[in-house]
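Input record (Table S2, row 209):
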Amino acid sequence: MKGYFISIEGTDGSGKSTQLEKMVSYLKERCPRVEVTREPGGTPVAEKIRELILDPENKAMTARTEMLLYAASRAQHVEEKIRPLLEEGAVVVTDRFIDSSIAYQAYGRGLGQIVGEVNRIAADGLEPDLTIFLDLSPEEGIARKRREERHEMDRLELETLAFHRKVYEGYDALCRQNPARVARIDAAQSVEEVFSQICRALDAVLSRR
Ligand code: TYD
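Output record (thymidine-5'-diphosphate complex):
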C-alpha cells in the first residue's frame, strides 16, 4: 500500500481534539494529500452505528453488543474509506482505531482477548503505521472534561472512575507491547509541549518515507 496510516488515541479529556487539529495542519504543510477521519464513524453507515453506540438512552446495551458495534463501524470504515485512500497514496489520520477497542472493551469492559480477534477480522488486518497516544491519568482527564463548559457527557464518558482506570491500564499495556508503533506522549504538559513531541514523532516517520 502506498499511503501512510496514523491513529491518535487518548483517554477522555486528554486534549486529543486540539492536538489532532494541530497535527493535521502540520502534515498538510508537508504531504500532498492528508485525509482526516474518526471512529466510531467516518462513513455514513458507520456514523449511524456511532449514534446508536453513544446514545445515553441505550443503557441496556451489553458489553458484547457494544464491542461488536464498534467493530462493525470499523469494518465499514476500513473497507469503504481507509483502504481506498491508502491505495491512492494518502496520509490517513484517524481519531481512534482498534487500540480504543482494546482499551475500552477488552480492558474497560473486561471482554479480554476476543476483542483483538474480532477486530483483526473487522479491520481485515489493517494496523496503523504510527499511533500517537496522549497519556493522561483518568483522574485528570475526567476533571478536565467536567471543567469544559456546555459539554454533554456521552454514554462512555458517564462511566465510573474505576472503568476509566481499567481503560488506562489497557492503553498502558498497548504502549508496552507495541513500542515501535505507539508514541506515548505525556498529555499533562502544555499544549505546545505536547505538540512539539507529536511533531518529533511525525518527523521521524516522514523522513523515512
Ligand atoms: P467521542 O465523542 O469520539 O469521544 P473522544 O473525543 O473521547 O474520542 O466518543 C467516542 C467514545 O467511544 C470514547 O469514549 C471512546 C469510545 N470508544 C470505544 O469504547 N471503543 C472504540 O473502539 C472506539 C473507537 C471508541
